[in-house]
Amino acid sequence: MLLAARDRFSRAWAARRKFSHAGPAGAGQVAKAANNMLLAVHMIGTCEALAMGEAHGLNPAVLSDIMKASSGNNWSLQVYNPGLMSWRVCPPATIINPALWSI
Length: 103
What we know:
Strand content: under 5%
Distance between the termini: 12 Å
Order of helices and strands: HHHH
Helix content: 40-55%
Largest sheet: none
Radius of gyration: 18 Å
Shape: elongated
Number of helices: 4
């Protein structure tokens, strides 16, 4: 994410990877907070889904492959799985304090 005045943004755009102009000062922080919130939802949902599957006898690796090829696919499932997405690492129904997430 890049926060810059429009003229400086245009120069950075030439060397772009994935830049978006979110708006005036402060808009970048809001965009980052919204993105981090969605990541947290994906991580928690992925842990819950894998825990549910395993509780009903599904192999977590097989369930992960099914979800990766289906509408449940998400960045957390692709990057953190199988290691951090295990219910042994992040128990289901654990209360996550939003203050712990980097904004």
